[in-house]
Amino acid sequence: MNLGQVPLLARIAIVLTVGITVEIIFRGFAFERLATLIGSAYVAGVISWLMCTLAHFLRWRFGGATQVGTWAAAMTVQYVRRYKRPTTMLMHALDDAIAFIVLPMLRTARRHNNLAV
């Protein structure tokens, strides 16, 4: 699917909702429950990071999973060190904004100017 064809308001809605819900699922629920059950924030962080990366691999394969996995590792480290979910939500939303809003707009602008993509 070409993200440039998805209406801008829909892409903005995706950025806002996904950034919040994914962080609640992987850093909120999964991480917190695992940390409680296992007794180690670090092990819980690794497991929740693997779950997040695998979930993205199933949709985006190696390229997307590599990018998401690297970014998710940074967010997981930040969360394990500070336990500030709003920070990871903002980081996630900004990353998605680049992927779903900025890059498709640049790609569209290049096509309109007959530049190579």
Question: Which terms summarize this structure?
Answer:
117 residues, mainly alpha, 86% helix
Number of strands: 0
The chain-level mean pLDDT equals 85
Work out the helix count.
3
What is the N-to-C succession of helices and strands?
Answer: HHH
| Beta-strand content bin | under 5%
Structural class: mainly alpha
Q: Biggest sheet, open or closed, and with what strands and sense? A: none
User: Taking Cα atoms only, what radius of gyration do you get, to the nearest Å?
Assistant: 16 Å
- Contiguous low-pLDDT stretches (5 residues minimum) are none
Explain what the structure shows.
The protein has 117 residues and is mainly alpha-helical. It has 3 helices and no strands. The longest helix has 42 residues, at 41-82.
Write the layout of secondary structure elements.
Blueprint: H1 8-38, H2 41-82, H3 85-112
Helix pairs in contact: 1-2, 1-3, 2-3
Provide a concise account of the structure shown.
With 117 residues, the protein is mainly alpha-helical. It has one domain. It is built from 3 helices and no strands.
